[in-house]
């Protein structure tokens, strides 16, 4: 087995969701039960569904997959009295470039996720759930299948869970390599055995999701945060962060840092402190050039914009997002043309082709960026890149079009000099 | 696998069934498509359209060891691209090609969720982190010897 992926606990972290990482056999149900496991479910079983939603709302937990939608609100949208059975779906299709946190939650604490799913099942009165795991994470499907089997054996899944009279079945479902399936409606199509293509909204999945049944869909980390919220109360979780953005989240730091890793930090944590102290700073005394704050879909920040706190509002104020928690650090040697091209190659490859602005837009942007990268950029291409990207914004079913456009717009605007340099090289050559 | 979905929803098993079957057969053959269609109660065409969409499903057999090198942003910054070029030379093949002896195939893949431990390589389903060119050589040589 490869060595453990989590980091040595850092005193700068606030470990709530990741607190069991590092315990021996933390993935086993025995260790989970010995460490407050399923206490939150038993507590929730005694609460009304409204009270559970209120605790989640109070915690100010927002979806950790990237969109950041308030979780309590999302839960309240699912019509629990519908004559149709409700379904729970876990989005474990983690594939946003820069993001690698759900992997740890599934590998080292799968039962915490299962308990979060069970609590959600009480709220929406669902009796079946599916964990949609990306195909590349086959070893994690095996981990979760083992955890599910343990939970059945110990009476925490199946009929009459923990003697409470509650029934719930949980299954894993393998994807087969498609970034698009991380988008919730495309994921549902994929779960139904089709190509992963986004759906028109409304109807939202809460009303008509998997197999047209009311569906509650959340990210692995969102479900994993539920047991601590119910156990210790929404207020306790809220107080870890800042007033409008409570709690902690797993931040995946990668790129040009001395200690890349996944760290659990409270919301509102200073970004520069995360880079310089938590992640050990930039190697070889290089200077910071840019930061991708939350996965490749987010507009990049220039070095002088990075002196901010990492919470939803602060990032929104400077036109970016907290996204999925994938923070990529770029030092001064980074070639932004090449970087922009790599992002666009990704989106052009992953565009499902359903919406023309995205399918054609990503392909054309890729071609223009390839031209630049090869040293044949024309001056008008700089404006064209921005214009093409802006024409994609808001014109597609799902967020992939925006996800491709936003970083490109930010790179072209903020790092125009990198593009200018490519021009001059060609002019000199001529 | 068919039983875990709601009644009448066996089409849902198409994607997982294909990927697990491909692991055994080495590729998605016409025979496999028809078998999956039969078991899931759908038309073969409905299976074929899925095969064309998902990047892990392939009609051509890949090598016994499928070497996947990530060159997406986090890996790119710390040498993923160089590692991929190195793998191409080492194996003498390009993207989605197979060595003549059928032992190895190579693929430049998109982000596979190992960003904080980049650059990363996945061989079949085994992840390898912080991979250097030397380590990749070692991995490949060991697999060659094991055969």
Structure overview:
The complex is a heterodimer of chains A (430) and B (147). By secondary structure, chain A is α/β, with parallel strands linked by helices. Chain A folds into 3 domains: 29-240, Rossmann fold, CATH 3.40.50.11540; 248-331, Ubiquitin-like (UB roll); 336-429, Up-down Bundle (de novo design (two linked rop proteins)). Chain A contains 17 helices and 11 strands. Chain A has helices at 29-34, 39-45, 49-59, 71-77, 102-108, 110-124, 138-153, 184-191, 220-232, 234-240, 271-278, 312-317, 336-350, 356-373, 379-392, 400-414, 416-429, and strands at residues 86-92, 126-133, 169-174, 215-219, 248-255, 261-266, 269-270, 288-292, 301-302, 309-310, 326-331. In chain A, the strands form 3 sheets. Chain A has a 5-stranded mixed beta sheet with strand order 6-5-11-8-9, with no helix packed on it. In chain A, strand 8 (288-292) and strand 9 form a beta hairpin. In chain A, helix 9 packs across helix 10. The model of chain A has no long low-confidence stretch (mean pLDDT 95). Chain B is an alpha+beta fold and 147 residues long. Chain B folds into 2 domains: 2-53, Arc Repressor Mutant, subunit A; 65-146, Glutaredoxin (3-Layer(aba) Sandwich). Chain B is built from 6 helices and 5 strands. Chain B has helices spanning 14-25, 30-40, 44-53, 73-77, 80-91, 133-146; strands spanning 65-70, 97-98, 104-109, 121-123, 126-128. The longest helix of chain B has 14 residues, at 133-146. Chain B is elongated, with a radius of gyration of 17 Å. The model of chain B has no long low-confidence stretch (mean pLDDT 97). The interface between A and B is large, with 60 and 46 residues.
